[in-house]
Amino acid sequence: MPEDRDIPLEHWPRRAALEHFRRMAQPAFSVTVPVDVTGLRDRAARHGATPWLAYHHAALEAANGIAAMHQTLKADGSGVREFAVIHASTTVLRDDGSFGFLTLPREPSLAAFAEHARPRVERVRQGSGSLFAGDEPGDVREETLVHMTALPWLAFTAFTHARGTGDDRPKLAFGRFVEQGDRLLMPVALDVHHALCDGVHVGRFFERLQANLDMI
Q1: DSSP designation for 146
Q2: Beta bridge mates, 147
């Protein structure tokens, strides 16, 4: 099994960029891209998944294919830690009108991902009070999470995320499906810490995301 590793910075190609951006008060940048989800509902159903679960899975698999999205700045400032596998945390609208956080462990198979996620979604949907009520992260560590959310009411063209001090996790937002000609498109916003990710990594992520959606 692959293991987490520390990246030695002495000969790391991105060391100069890391040192430049980590000192900034706002070191993250965000890109919003429309992705093609034509026919996703029917394709996802064949795997026992809703479109919501399908695009979460496609995005998590895309993120797992980008090494830069596995990385975090070490708290002591000594370098970068790269996780072997990353997982997702997303938001679920509760029955009482509030929202809760849901941990979605990585499963390479969409069918397995959907099977494990469905009861997790229902527990969080029925929760109240704490933002984490009903969530069962198991052995998934918080620092390995890609933060996700869905706004199915809005076909947004830009999006910003809340970030706490020291928060360098990749963040994703999925928007409303919109018809454009004979295609169905969905806006996806990706927000990353520039000390760890550059435009090339964002570009590769969206290429992988579209390919994953197409292959469902």
Answers
A1: E
A2: 89, 171
